[in-house]
Amino acid sequence: MSRTLKLGAVLIGVGGPGQHSTWLSPEIPGNASSDVHWYIKQAQRAEAAKFDLIFIVDSQFITADSPNHYLSRLEPLTLLSAVAVHTKNIGLVGTITTSYNSPFNVARRLASLDHISGGRAGWNVVTSGDSGTAGNYSRDEHYDYPTRYGRALEHVRIAQGLWDSYEADAFPRDRELGVFFDRSKQHTLDHRGEHFSSVVGPLNLERTPQGQPVIFQAGDSEEGRDLGGRIADAIFTHSETLEQAQAFRAELRSRATAHGRDPENVLIMPGIFPIIADTDAEARAKAEGILGSKSFDRALAELGRPFGWHDFTQYDLDAPFPDLPEDVGQNSFRTQTTQIKKLAKDNNLTLRQVVEHQLNWSRSAFVGSPLTVANEIQRWFEAGGFDGINISVSVPSDFRRFTDEVLPILRERGVVRSDYESTTLRGNLGLPIPENRYTAAGRASSDQRPDPTAVPNIGLPVPVA
Question: CATH topology for 6-274+364-429?
Answer without folding.
Answer: TIM Barrel (3.20.20)
